[in-house]
Every structure is written in C-alpha cells, then in structure tokens.
Amino acid sequence: MTPIEHRPEQTTGSPPPGEPDLLIPPIFLVVGKLRRPHGIHGEIIMDVLTDFPERLQAGARVYVGADHRLLRIQGCRTTADALLVSFEEYSDRESVGVLRNELLYVRKDEIPTLPEGEYYHHQILGLHVVDEDGVELGTVVDILETGANDVCVVRPERGPEILLPVIESTILQIDLDSGVMRVHLLEGLV
Fold first, then answer.
1. In whole angstroms, what is the distance from residue 178 CA to residue 68 CA?
2. What does the pLDDT look like over 128-139, one tens digit per residue?
3. What is the CATH number of the domain that holds 47?
4. Residue 8: pLDDT band with limits 50, 70, 90
5. Do 81 and 132 fall within a single domain?
6. CA proximity to 100, closest of 45, 140, 63
7. DSSP 8-class letter at 98
8. Would the N or C end of the chain have less CB density within 10 A of its end CB?
9. CA dihedral angle for residue 29, residue 27, residue 35, residue 85, rounded to 10 degrees
C-alpha cells in the first residue's frame, strides 16, 4: 500500500451505470497546505501532503479552501522543505495572501491510477477486516506511516485496537469492490 493523499471528506453512493455523475458531488483529496506569500510576484509557500508532487505543475487544475474554488497552477518550484506555487488567478503578494492557511485539493476522479496491488489511503480506510477463517476483526480507521512499513489501525466492535503491519505475510487480499481486507494475524497481534 503506497501512502499518499490524506483523507477526503467521504460521500456515499454511485450513479447508475452509464449515467453522468451529476448528483453526487466530487470527492476531493488534500495535496497541500498553503502557508504564506513568498516574494512579490504571487508565489505562496505550500507544505506538500502528497506522494505525487510532480503532478503539481503549470496548467494543472487544483481546488482551494472548504468551498473548493477552482485554480490553475501557473508555476511551481521546490525549496528545501516545501513548494513555491503560483496561480494564474493571483499575480501579487497581496492578492495571493488571501489563500494563507488554506488546504489545496485535487479531485479524486482526477488522480493517477496506481499499479495493481498498490492503494491510496482513502481506498483502505473503512474496509472491513476479516481473518483467514472469515472472522470479522473490525474496520480500518487509520493508517500509520512508519519508517519500515505502514500500519493499519483496526477498530473492533469491542476490545482494543489491532495494529496490522502492511506486509505481504499479513495482508492477504484487498477487495475494494466488496470493501473487505483479508488478513493473516501474526502471533501477538491480538
């Protein structure tokens, strides 16, 4: 499982096959947090909250704030610990200053497809976890990013949370269509 975007606001439901997705609002994923203006030409410092910062380039469509206002990236360059981003809609320090402390989003339906066997965090959160015998263990409520591997936090109906390392010997199958993760419990996990 590849760590990437932070949790989106969840909506449910799908349009009938072949019908446009007009009634269901798009789901947005956070890719950055805008901090403060930099210089006088409309650049703003952004903390990167995505594993794919390379897609944040000139011409890319992004959305800002809780109301998800559409913006187009005019330019993007890296600094030691952040990105400097400019938008076509803002040309100077004062105008871009209104974006201070806003979150920057992309639409979920516009994110790149991952290779088979890799998943975004938002796809894993909420999955029902069962062991090899089909015994329900709980629901994935969080994913911890550690140095070695990610760890899924599974909350059962009763009892303490279960921490499942995201490794081949533990995660046996992920079925996004049925919303189930099948796992092998290593000794000492429960």
1. 30
2. 999 999 999 999
3. 2.40.30.60
4. very low
5. no
6. 45
7. G
8. C
9. 80
